[in-house]
Design a protein that fits this description.
The chain is α/β, with parallel strands linked by helices and about 270 residues long. The chain has a single domain, classed as NAD(P)-binding Rossmann-like Domain (Rossmann fold, 3-Layer(aba) Sandwich). It is about 30% helix and about 20% strand. The chain has nine helices and ten strands. It has an eight-stranded mixed β-sheet with strand order 4-3-2-1-5-6-7-10, sandwiched between helices. A two-stranded parallel ribbon has the order 8-9. Helix 1 crosses helix 7 and helix 4 packs parallel to helix 5. It starts with 5 loop residues before the first strand and ends in a 13-residue tail after the last helix. Bound molecules: NADP nicotinamide-adenine-dinucleotide phosphate. NADP nicotinamide-adenine-dinucleotide phosphate binds next to strand 3, strand 6 and strand 8.
Length: about 270
């Protein structure tokens, strides 16, 4: 059954590659993209059918029509902080959608959005909350979510990822040595790479379509508490915080994730990594 299902992972990067490997190990046929010619061999070695795809902002690459010949597409294209104009991201996604429609096979698109779409002072950030995005980046993300959810050509699910941590992105290194940081009492919202890829895997496996799902761990210590401890655990100088707190910060609610994904439990805790 699974070998009949072809999953495209647009962006076999820090999160997309472990997801692709998980899918391969569970018997799915996985087509994965990279912008880096040198990574093609690595993908192939991991059982992923490799493709060179770049959104610049229009989709370019080799055998692009073949890449989009899949049943499910996971979009892990990053919203780069380096974009001068956040609408660049919208253009990239629009071009991807045009290819999805042109290829005509993809029935389900999963988009890795971000919990940064919620306003920074939303004390209980739930998927069904009505809110106005409070930054240009959040506005673009929210609009892309809406475009995908309302698209008549395919079903979609939006996974709003909290801050990602794990190998090479260790919490202790995030803020170590920084000074005069604000909002020491704000809660953190993070998820480990393993858990984030398991959420995406479960959405595919259980065919959970038409949903917005917050993917955020259970623990919400304050920034000061976590980043100080994590830096010390790594033997790094801890960050220094000011006493300034702007509001109470946000907590991303993960009740829907636990309700929708059968038997869900987080495998990683914040200070495991
Ligand atoms: N980092 C966080 O804390 C965080 C929080 C919330 C949400 N997210 C979202 O989570 C997703 C995964 O993040 P990540 O850290 O795994 O991203 P990443 O490793 O930086 O990049 C993911 C993949 O996208 C590919 N890519 C980058 N620019 C591209 C372009 N212009 N055209 C085509 N492909 C391109 C990369 O290609 P190469 O293989 O060539 O590098 C890589 O394979 C993203 O959607 C991100 O916005 C991240």
């Amino acid at each position: 059954m699974r070998s009949d299902q072809v999953i495209g992972v647009l962006g076999c990067g820090w999160l997309g590659l472990p997801l692709a490997q998980m899918l391969v190990s569970e018997g799915y046929v996985v087509k994965g993209s990279t912008t880096n010619e040198k990574k093609l061999e690595e993908l192939e070695g991991k059982g992923v059918v490799p493709f060179l795809v770049r959104c610049d902002p229009d989709v370019q690459g080799r055998n692009t029509a073949d890449f989009f010949c899949a049943d499910v597409l996971v979009l892990t294209l990053p919203f780069k902080r380096s974009f001068n104009d956040p609408s660049q991201y919208q253009k990239q996604i629009d071009s991807v959608i045009a290819w999805v429609m042109k290829a005509g096979r993809i029935k389900f698109v999963i988009f890795t959005s971000s919990t940064s779409v919620y306003p920074s002072h939303m004390e209980d950030a739930r998927e069904d909350a009505v809110f106005l995005p409070d930054s240009p980046r959040a506005k673009v993300l929210w609009q892309i979510e809406q475009d995908l959810l309302n698209h008549p050509g395919f079903a979609s699910t939006i996974v709003r990822l909290a801050g990602l941590f794990g190998p090479d992105r260790e919490i202790g290194q995030f803020l170590a040595q920084k000074k005069d940081l604000q909002n020491p009492n704000h809660p953190v919202n993070l998820i480990h790479q393993d858990d984030a890829s398991r959420v995406l895997f479960s959405v595919i496996e259980c065919n959970i379509c038409g949903e917005i799902i917050n993917a955020c761990g259970d623990e919400h210590p304050t920034r000061k508490e976590l980043y100080t401890k994590a830096a010390l655990v790594k033997g790094l100088p801890p960050p220094e915080f000011s006493d300034v707190n702007e509001g109470k910060g946000k907590i991303v609610n993960n009740a829907k994730l636990k309700r929708l994904l059968p038997g869900w439990s987080f495998s990683r805790r914040l200070l495991d990594a």
